Amino acid sequence: MKKTLTALALGSTLMSTAVITSAAELTDSFDVLLNLQSSCTLDSTTDLDFGDQTDADVVAGNIDAANTVTVTCSNGADFTIGLTNGANFGAGPVATERAMKSANASYVSYQIFQDSGRTTAWTDTDDVAFNGTGASQNIDIYGRIPAQTPTIDAADTFNATGLALTDTVTVTLTY
Q: Which of 18, 86, 94, 137 could crosslink 98 through cysteines, CB 3.0-4.6 Å?
């Protein structure tokens, strides 16, 4: 009986070894992919503020102001900045220009330019091109009130704080 058990145990060990040595290992691989796109953010805008002026200053004209649009775009990303004509285009003393309006119907026309010399107008059809640096970029916008006679509505009065005129220009960042 002893011999039978030994043979049976030895046969079982050999079968077990045969299974381990006959195992195969298969491999394959996969790619890890990313399609990185450029990005831009319109970080902030400041007001184009012509400050406190008298009606005589407006008649004399060439009142200048500037504001800034701050954007951050990926390094090397092309982008454009577009500006609307504002809410009161053509309603002021200069019918072909943007205009600021009082709470009633007083108007002062103004212009927006791409350059500090105020020689290249920035109209609603001008999408001005820039190139991203990967860091915050300040885009300067230059305004001017040209010589004109302000349109003063009879319902408006000059009080101690003056007569407030405003307009809203929308900035569009395209990339």
A: 86
- 171 CB neighbour count, 10 Å cutoff: 14
Among the residue ranges 12-16, 109-113, 119-123, 131-135, the one predicted with the least confidence is 12-16
3-state secondary structure the chain: CHHHHHHHHHHHHHHHHHHHHCCCCCCCCCCCCCCCCCCEEEEEECCCCCCCCCHHHHHHCCEEEEEEEEEEECCCCEEEEEECCCCCCCCCCCCCCEEEECCCCCEEEEEEECCCCCCCECCCCCEEEEECCCCEEEEEEEEEECCCCCECCCCCCCECCECCCECCCCEEEEC
Pick 40-174's CATH classification: 2.40.160.20, 2.60.40.1090, 3.40.390.10, 3.40.50.2000.
Answer: 2.60.40.1090
The pTM (predicted TM-score) of the whole model is: 0.81
